[in-house]
Hints:
This protein is mainly beta. Helices cover 5% and strands 46% of the residues. It holds the Pfam family PRC_RimM.
Amino acid sequence: MKSPFLPTGQIVNTHGLKGLVKVMPWADDPADLLDFDRFFIDGTEYAVEHSSLQKSMVLLKLEGIDTLEDAVKLRGKEISIARADVELEEGVVFIADLIGLPVYCGERELGKITEVLTPPANDVYVVKGQREYLIPAVKEFIEELNPEAGYVRVRLIEGMEADAD
């Protein structure tokens, strides 16, 4: 079952004396976190009173976190958004929903997705089984991506299967 929360960053420090926290975002674009009006920490909901960018970090003023002492208690905590608060475009999936999915080439299971690399050109799925595969997340290689049913089907080209058997 999918978690109702999606981890989006980690509180790495405090900022100032009035309870602001500094978040290291795990989003492709840190500014994306500025669109949310609530976050969750350890399952507790916090409304956002104010948010801004500071270089590659996000500064958040969360409701009820009003002092430096309050903010210090959150240092090191993971911060999440509610899955229901995000609308995805057609064909877009959360990386968190890909991790652990079995990957098939024909009827043969190659392994499971253990990581998604995000270089500039396109995402790359790291699939580990009896060996490791690096599979570009493009239509030439991905035949079917079905996180709801719990699998991915791929097409490998010559050279990707060297030393496979």
